[in-house]
Every structure is written in structure tokens, then in C-alpha cells.
Amino acid sequence: MRLDKYLKNSRIIKRRTVAKEACEGGRVKINGNDAKAGTEVKVGDIIEILFGDKTVKARITHLAEHATKDTAKEMFEIIED
After folding, report:
1. In what order do the strands lie in the sheet with 54-60?
2. Mean pLDDT (the chain, rounded)
3. What separation in angstroms does the CA of 58 have from each of 3, 8, 20, 43, 66?
């Protein structure tokens, strides 16, 4: 699944366009490497997102094309924030 789509489906970022802009701005990393919006993610990858002066680090636990509000929380676990 594409990174921007995963961020939207998991509700880490509310809109796919905002997720794409974050990736293009260099604020998203996967496993320590800069990531583009089209980068494929898989279960076990570690995503780091810079929100202002705060960094959120999460491990992907599940991939889903469609997620409800409740199932979106199961798609990742926060490692540190």
C-alpha cells in the first residue's frame, strides 16, 4: 500500500493530500530513510512523522484498504511521541 494512502486510512493524517505534502516536505521517514508518498509500506515498518516540533514514531501492525474509526487504531502502535 502507498504511504500516503496508509497514513490516511490509519487516520494518522486526516487527508491524503496533506499526507502527500508531508512526504514531499521531507517530514516522513520509513525505517530511518526519507519516504516519498508512493513508497510501498508493509507490516513491521517503522514510520516517523514530524508534526511541528513533535515527532511521532509508529510501527505498522496491519494494512487495510478501508478502515472504520475503530479498526484504524489497530493499524499501528505508537512507539514514542
Report:
1. 33-34, 28-30, 46-51, 54-60, 76-80
2. 92
3. 13, 14, 18, 11, 19
Is the pLDDT at 70 greater than 80, yes or no?
A: yes
Among 7, 64, 53, smallest CA distance to 30 is for: 7
pLDDT tens digits for 15-53? Answer: 999 999 999 999 999 999 999 999 999 999 999 999 889
Domains of the chain plus CATH, in order, are: 3-80 (3.10.290.10)
pTM metric for this prediction:
0.89
